[in-house]
Design a protein that fits this description.
This protein is α/β, with parallel strands linked by helices. The protein contains 31 helices and 34 strands. 38% of the residues lie in helices and 18% in strands. Strands 2-1-11-10-12-13-14-15-16 form a nine-stranded mixed sheet, sandwiched between helices. A seven-stranded mixed sheet has the order 28-34-33-29-32-30-31, sandwiched between helices. The chain is elongated, with a radius of gyration of 33 Å. The termini are far apart.
């Protein structure tokens, strides 16, 4: 049987039944099976009238809509071959695909770049669907449908005839044309039909582009031939899709793993924002219920899962996942929420589905069992049973169009070489382990799976997208990272580079050394992908080269845009502030312009001076790109106003901290505070003495007049260790800067005051943190800070942030270097509880900032004051690392 015969049989059986519902521009249109068939026959006769017949090729570049079905079957009924194309394909790929197939006609979206087709002389007719033709020489689909055509008999297709030439959405260059016959598609349809997972009562929401073999089979051929319903919607936005699922009683939604991942993240984000920690409790309940269900077969959260499923409509049954491997954590996340995902595996070359997880016996992490009539073998399996997946069956393509050499490379002895790595378990379930071409072979001979490394680092909450590559000499792994800016906004973090680096170091500790990423670049743009979510590796390589300085990064100057006067002023200030020749609207203030947190404070001061407005730190903390900064300034001022005097750091530090911070600074140690301090002294001295054999050197270096204690930061214990290391008489005068995240609860807030911890979010409120530090230091107190800005993952001392240098220079306070040895081994990041391990602390002589600056300039002669101080301070702290060796 051919596709056209199967379509005719479905029409005969379901003629008056609604086959397709189209939601477009606020209109709802219905098409019956009979109407679709009549439209296809009319187009077939029109094509025949234009001279299109057996052996001819016709392009099809449309969005998902009923006319796609009419055009596709119209092409087949005329005896021609369809060439489905991506509406969003590049000019190069469109010209290549239509040129190689010498297509004589094209059904086209009005969004297509028609200028890319002008050189294709063989392309005689272009029919525009879904809008008025944008230029001369183009036909309107509605005119074609209303044109009279002779009722001539249409040619009969044979099962072995070509039905489609589908150009694979390649990730490494120009795609190859996959030749698929009527027999290939029909074999695959019958294999899927045999699963019994779809019934005529189902309604498919079709959102994936039909030019690709997976949605073509899963959301068009399968429901159409079974007598089910298909719904099309003209948007990919979440809210309209969710509304459509409910309003149209959709039962099945086929999507890619990437869409499911975004859906899951969004759901978790909504739960996290529920008040009073309700969302976290619900997630814990769902997790516990899942564990109970695995052991007892009963899920206590079934009522909650049902409520969540009903959010997609009362008739919704399951998702179909295809186009790429579904990450295990996404599959588990949906299972806990009570959703079913039918995951399958296939390729364009296999028409396309090879295996599916059965509804009655799914296996998480697997892509299911091979379908009926399809054989799967593993070529040259290694010790774990992993090898290249070989596929045989009537669904395997006829070959690559005009490329016999490529065909011979992948088809031999009746087997198709998939290029995918996988294994079969004892029950016949298939597990995908990555792509052969995605195995990086390093110069050392070590093999690295791109998928494994990507999945590992994607556990970091600060990372949204991640792709690993080999460097130019294949000596090490590098990566392109897209930060999760929603995470940074919610956390109030502004130092994106440092936080991402911290997470990369943290997760690197859990990998073999050769699998660790040694270098990375950040981009604020989504990684380039095919329409089904596969990352285009060669384009990611270009991003890495551009971002790492290996290639020039082209930019469109923001000044060339249609900016408001405020926007022009902001861009000109940025050009002056950064010294860059060109600035673009989508440039990230840190990643592209190189502005760290202190430089951003200076930028805000310059903007306040120019526009005569006050910019709240909370508002500035939520700004990441040049465009966002312009929009913020436009809301604050209609244009430049009377300039205010620009504040220097000395003036900023002379200002008292904001009231909420000021009220938490307890300078006077009353009787309760002194008693509490004494109790802590006894507790910590005993704990650290017995459990960690704490030894301290250099206490005599702590001056009576106070100062800024600057220590390395390797564990959560470090602040308490410094407290215990300071002599008893000085402890009531010792203050700490603490993160509000740990000190915002009422009880902890009161304890923090007694502990003399000043809770301030330095990432979001840097100025307030600096003012609080200055307020304490001016009153001859000791202030302990950890100038690296975060705990070290590896135990090594990181770069020193310039905040301490500003405080020392502007206030004239002395810097007291300190080094804690052993706390990283006692309580490293990722370990839930500390373990006994010897710890030593060494204090160095207090130094004025000028002395440290001179030492820093010995390392870097052109360093300015703040940078020179940080370099000198780092050397002082490192010099104390050897003191522990002098203890007996």
């Amino acid at each position: 049987m051919t596709l056209t015969e199967a379509f005719a049989a479905a029409v005969k059986k379901h003629a008056g039944q609604v086959a397709v519902v189209s939601l477009e521009d606020g209109r709802r249109r219905e098409y019956t099976y009979e109407q679709l068939h009549q439209g296809a026959v009319h187009l077939a006769r029109w094509l025949r009238q234009q001279g299109v017949g057996p052996g001819g090729h016709v392009g099809l570049a449309l969005e998902n809509r009923p006319e796609w079905i009419m055009a596709y079957f119209g092409i087949l009924l005329a005896g021609a071959v369809a060439v489905p194309l991506d509406v969003q394909a590049s000019r190069e790929i469109l010209a290549h695909s239509l040129g190689q197939t010498r297509a004589v006609a094209l059904f086209a979206s009005p969004r297509l770049p028609f200028d890319a087709l002008t050189g294709l002389e063989h392309l005689q007719q272009i029919i525009v669907v879904g809008g008025a033709p944008p230029g001369p020489g183009l036909l309107d689909f509605t005119d074609v449908m209303s044109a009279p055509v002779p009722e001539v008999p249409l040619p009969d297709a044979a099962p072995g005839d070509l039905a489609s030439i589908i150009y694979t959405s390649g990730t490494t260059g120009l795609p190859k044309g996959v030749m698929l016959t009527h027999a290939n598609f029909m074999a695959n349809y019958r294999s899927i039909e045999a699963l019994g997972a779809v019934t005529p009562a189902d309604n498919f929401l079709s959102v994936l582009p039909l030019y690709h073999a997976f949605p073509f089979m899963a959301t068009l051929i399968l429901p159409l031939f079974l007598g089910a319903r298909i719904t099309y919607i003209d948007t990919l936005k979440a809210e309209p899709i969710l509304r459509c699922l409910k309003d149209e009683d959709v039962t099945i939604l086929a999507v890619t793993p990437q869409v499911l991942q975004h859906f899951l993240r969004g759901l978790h984000s909504r739960l996290a924002h529920l008040p009073l920690g309700v969302g976290r409790l619900l997630e814990l309940f769902l997790d516990l219920s899942w564990r109970v269900a695995q052991r007892r077969g009963y899920n206590p959260a079934r009522f909650l899962q049902q409520r969540l499923r009903h959010a997609l409509g009362h008739r919704f049954r399951y998702f179909i996942s295809g186009g790429a491997k579904l990450p295990d954590d996404v599959a588990l996340g949906f299972a806990k929420l009570g959703f079913t995902i039918m995951e399958g595996y296939g390729l364009t070359e296999t028409a396309p589905v090879v295996s599916f997880n059965p509804l009655d016996a799914p296996k998480m992490g697997s892509v299911g069992k091979p379908l009926q009539g399809i054989r799967v073998a593993i070529d040259r399996p290694e010790a774990r049973g992993v090898g290249e997946i070989l596929i045989a069956g009537d669904n395997v393509m006829a070959g690559y169009y005009l490329n016999e050499a490529a065909t011979r490379e992948v088809i031999a002895d009746g087997w198709f070489r998939s290029g995918d790595l996988g294994c079969l378990d004892e029950e016949g379930y298939l597990f995908i382990q990555g792509r052969l071409k995605d195995i990086i072979v390093l110069a050392s001979g070590k093999n690295v799976s791109v998928e494994e490394v990507n999945s590992h680092y994607l556990q970091a909450p600060a990372i949204k997208e991640f792709y690993v590559l080999p460097n130019a000499r294949n000596e090490k792994l590098v990566a392109v990272v897209v930060p999760d800016f929603d995470y940074f906004r919610q956390a109030g973090e502004t130092d994106v580079q440092a936080r991402v680096k911290w997470y990369l170091e943290f997760y690197s500790q859990q990998l073999e050394s050769y699998k660790r990423v040694k270098d990375f670049v950040l981009t604020n743009q989504e990684l380039p992908k095919t329409r089904l979510g596969k990352v285009k590796r060669y384009e990611v390589e270009r991003i890495y080269q551009a971002r790492s300085g290996q290639a020039a990064r082209p930019k469109t100057s923001a000044l060339e845009e249609n900016l408001s006067p405020v926007g022009v002023a902001v861009v000109e200030l940025l050009l002056d502030h950064t010294g860059l020749p060109v600035i673009a609207l989508d440039d990230h203030l840190e990643l592209d312009l190189g502005l760290d947190s202190l430089a951003l404070v200076e930028l805000v001061a310059a903007l306040e001076q120019h526009f005569g407005v006050a910019i709240r730190e909370e508002a500035a903390a939520g700004v990441f790109t040049v465009g966002e900064l312009i929009r913020l300034m436009e809301t604050l001022s209609p244009g430049p106003a009377a300039a205010r005097p620009r504040q220097s750091w000395a003036e900023i530090l002379a200002t008292p901290p904001p009231d909420p911070v000021f009220k938490r600074i307890g300078l006077t140690a009353g009787f309760p505070s002194r008693m509490f301090t004494m109790g802590l002294c006894l507790l910590f001295d005993t704990l650290f003495g017995l459990g960690f054999r704490l030894r301290v050197a250099g206490r005599e270096h702590l001056p009576e007049g106070g100062g800024l204690i600057c220590s390395n930061h390797a564990s959560f214990m470090d602040g308490f260790l410094i407290f215990s290391a300071v002599p008893w008489p000085l402890r009531p005068r010792l203050f700490f800067l603490g993160t509000t995240f740990y000190f915002e609860l009422p009880l902890i807030r009161d304890l923090g005051r007694l502990l003399r911890v000043i809770p301030v979010d330095s990432a979001r409120h840097l100025v307030a943190a600096m003012q609080a530090a200055a307020y304490v230091l001016r009153r001859d107190k000791f202030l302990c800070v950890f100038p690296e800005g975060a705990r070290t993952v590896t135990g090594d001392l990181k770069e020193i942030k310039p905040g301490v240098a500003i405080l020392a220079r502007e206030l004239g306070v002395r810097l007291i270097p300190a080094y804690i040895h052993g706390s990283h081994a006692a309580w490293p990041p990722g370990q839930p509880f500390p373990r006994p391990h010897p710890i030593t602390i060494a204090f160095g002589p207090s130094r004025p900032w000028q002395e440290l600056a001179d030492r820093g300039r010995a390392l870097k002669p052109d360093a300015k004051d703040y940078e020179a101080v940080t370099l000198g301070l780092r050397q002082e702290i490192l010099s104390l690392a050897q003191v522990q060796a002098t203890f007996p």
